[in-house]
Amino acid sequence: MRIGTALNHRDRASQSLRSLFRTAPMYYSSHDNLMNQYRVISDSIAHCPVWVKSFVEGQYRLLSDLHYDHLEFCYIQDTGDNTPPILFSTAKDTLKRSTEEFYKAGKGCDLGKLQSNFFYRGIGDSYNKPY
């Protein structure tokens, strides 16, 4: 493969990755969706030289690590009725309810019994789909 062609493939894959991670917080993309899109991008450069694949993989790892700044770890308390569950965040600067409520009430051990997952920041107390 000619170097110019390889560079074009690298640049196209790089642009696709940046676009993917730039829009993920806006559309609350799930982890599965991000992985599927990355596989599509990765498959598009499967025939390229190793250095192109390494560049794109490194960029994916960097953007993936930066993406975690948009997420927070939450415990999910089911309310038992048709209302959405309550999210308790471990983050200090959150719009959701804090896990400190459990600790202040002396029920910190109860957190281990709740389901948990990552959620996007900035949603408030409303329930959104897990990351």
Query: What's the number of extended β-strand segments?
Result: 4
Low-confidence stretches: none
Question: What is the distance, rounded to the nearest whole angstrom, between the alpha carbons of the first and last residues?
Answer: 38 Å
Main sheet: strands, sense, barrel: 4 strands, mixed
Structure, explained:
Helices cover 47% and strands 15% of the residues. By secondary structure, it is α+β, with helices and mostly antiparallel strands. The protein folds into 2 domains: 3-69, no CATH class; 70-120, no CATH class. It has a 4-stranded mixed β-sheet. Helix 1 (3-27) runs parallel beside helix 3 (50-67). The model has no long low-confidence stretch (mean pLDDT 85).
Defining traits:
single chain, 131 residues, 4 helices, elongated
Task: Compose a concise summary of this entry.
The protein is α+β, with helices and mostly antiparallel strands. Helices cover about 45% and strands about 15% of the residues. The protein folds into 2 domains: about 5-70, no CATH class; about 70-120, no CATH class.
Chain-wise SSE layout:
Layout: H1 3-27, H2 31-44, H3 50-67, E1 71-77, E2 86-89, E3 97-98, H4 100-104, E4 115-120
Parallel strand pairs: 2-3
Antiparallel strand pairs: 1-2, 1-4
